[in-house]
Structures are given as structure tokens and as C-alpha cells.
Amino acid sequence: MGRGRYPARLNVTAPPPELAERYFRSWPAHALYHTPDRFPPLSAEGLFGRSAPLTLEFGCATGEYLCALAAAQPEACFVGVDIVAKPLYRAVQRAAALDLANIQFIHADARLLYQRIPDAALAVIVLHFPPPLLRNRQRNQLLVSPQMLACAARALAPGGYLSFLTDHPALFALMQELLPAFPALRARPASPSELAAFESHYHRRWAARGRVINGLRIERVAAG
User: Fold this and answer.
1) With contact defined as beta carbons under 8 Å apart, do 78 and 66 qualify?
2) Topology, domain 19-220
3) How far apart (Å, rounded) are the C-alpha atoms in residues 64 and 95?
């Protein structure tokens, strides 16, 4: 099941300059593709100017889940990415209301960001309820892909992990099908506590409709 029209229904406007400077980045696709070096490395040092564990969420929408993590872990850094700007405006509002100093949001195509993530720069990648896009003509838009898993295998620090949740059985099966090609990644089912922690809008939405939520904790195996 896709995301529906929820982001399009949001009644929000672009954040004012002072909040945009603090929380919001727009990285256009054409610039990321042709001149990626114009943008800072997607790392705690590159975006926050300090060394800290960094969590990156692909498809963060309104930032509900990521802001909850950031509020609970002020010593760490958090970055949310979404290809749609409007939900990120709500995410900025949420972060500002909590006066968070450890979070930023990037309006960008996640698939073009892989090249900007340094090796071992991430402690956690969050991929929760990505759009299935399972029609053949949409396959190249999927976030569950060999390219994303190759990025995770390279960009996660040893001992780091990718948190994956979906309500879509075919998407869960696709992730399981792709994982054996990446021996640096080892998957186990998400525990009940991991499935229940900081439930997002989409998590509550699909669970309320009776859909089964499947999850994996995909860990980066330490070398040797």
C-alpha cells in the first residue's frame, strides 16, 4: 500500500529564513547529479560540525519519528530526507517546537545522496514504510534496492544497523531476496519493542487498518 495523499493534504508553508537556516536544506536533483561536490558530506562533521553518532532516515515525511529520537538522544545527530518538500516543512515546525539542536532535514532524492555519505559515517539508517512502487515502470524509484543496500554496507559503521519496517508483504520479500548479496549485512527480525518504539503516523495508520507490520534490524558486521 502506498503513502496515499497524506503529504499533499498538509496545510503548511515554507519555514521562515531563521528556521530554514537552522533545520532545512534543499539539494536539487540536477545539482546533486552533475556537481555533487557542491554539497557537504552527509556526516555529523559535515552537517553539524562535530563528531557524534549519526542517524539518517530515508523518507522521513513530517519527522515525527526522527524528532522523537532526537529529543531522546541529545548527544547524537539526526538527518531526515524526503523527496517531497511539504512534509519537511511540518518536520521543521516540529523540531523548532522542541528546540532541537541535533537535527536537520534535507529535501532531496535519497538515491542521489548515497554518493555524499562517507564510509562508516552512519550509526543508524531508518527506512520505515517506504512506498512500494512495485509496478515494473516504477522499479527504478524503489528505495529497497541493491544500490541502497550497497550504500548501507559501506556507510554504516561496524555495529551500526538499518531499521526496516513495512506493511507491504511484497516489499518485505524483496528486501529478504536482496540481502544475501551483501555479506557485510546481517538481518534479524525486529523485536516487539523495536516494532513499537516511537510509532510514526504511517505505523499507526497501517496498524489501525489491520495490516501486519514486518520489520528487520539489518546490522553491519564488524570486519573480521
Assistant:
1) yes
2) Rossmann fold (3.40.50)
3) 9
